[in-house]
């Protein structure tokens, strides 16, 4: 039986690594790298290695989230509901490392529980692989940011920029509009890269729609074409009258630029507030887990 900690380069999983390594000196800390983290996250990883007194095992599938998405399908666009980067870049990579009988420690917090995250999803799915999942921060009622401060850990700079997480250098496909605006402000080149990629994927979607109409309908009503194109997949969604509606990164940028004012980063509203990666958020959501453990 091995004690394995999934480290994300975020504060909660860092504290879990500290606590478990202190209690179980032979513990192994692993980091599934999707090759998209901010440089300061890797500085933080080094700080955590010094804190726990051992190297962190680096794992990787060798692809960024956008590369994973392109390999998933012709015009696939990941988002909060379907993120193959979580499944292929995180869950599957860690699963290959795990052995039957291992205990996997995750950085889920009381805030995750309060936000309604399904804490049983990782437990019931990992048990299929003979792995037991534990949440030390919840079980021992620990507030990770407070303890990190006492330990002298300097958090990744993205936390100080208002992000709710420190994943993927501000390009997490599960983040909401607020964090995307933060990326537009702090890392415009990263924002532009993903915006252009999303547009390219949408062009592919439109081509597929037109080809399908040409092949299967000799005369297609114009309203049908408009309806299909209006439902192109997007990375971000917003809630309108209780319904999730897609909004492109280009639209978000245009809205921000039209306002001509600097927002309060910490007051920006996120309709979607779930990151669901292996890191700090419990190895994905139930759908992503079932796809791996089916």
How would you characterize this protein structure?
There is one protein chain. This protein is an alpha/beta fold and 294 residues long. It has 2 domains: 3-164 and 274-293, 3-Layer(aba) Sandwich (Rossmann fold); 179-267, no CATH class. Helices cover 48% and strands 10% of the residues. It is built from 14 helices and 7 strands. The protein has helices spanning 11-23, 39-52, 65-72, 84-97, 110-114, 120-126, 136-139, 144-150, 157-160, 177-186, 188-216, 222-229, 249-259, 286-293, and strands at 3-6, 28-32, 57-59, 103-105, 132-134, 236-240, 243-247. The protein has a 5-stranded parallel β-sheet. Helix 1 (11-23) links the parallel strand 1 and strand 2 (28-32). Helix 1 runs parallel beside helix 2 (39-52), helix 4 (84-97) crosses helix 14 (286-293) and helix 10 (177-186) packs across helix 13. The longest helix has 29 residues, at 188-216. The protein is globular and about 65 Å long. The chain starts with a strand and ends with a helix. The model is unreliable at 272-276 and 279-283 (pLDDT under 50).
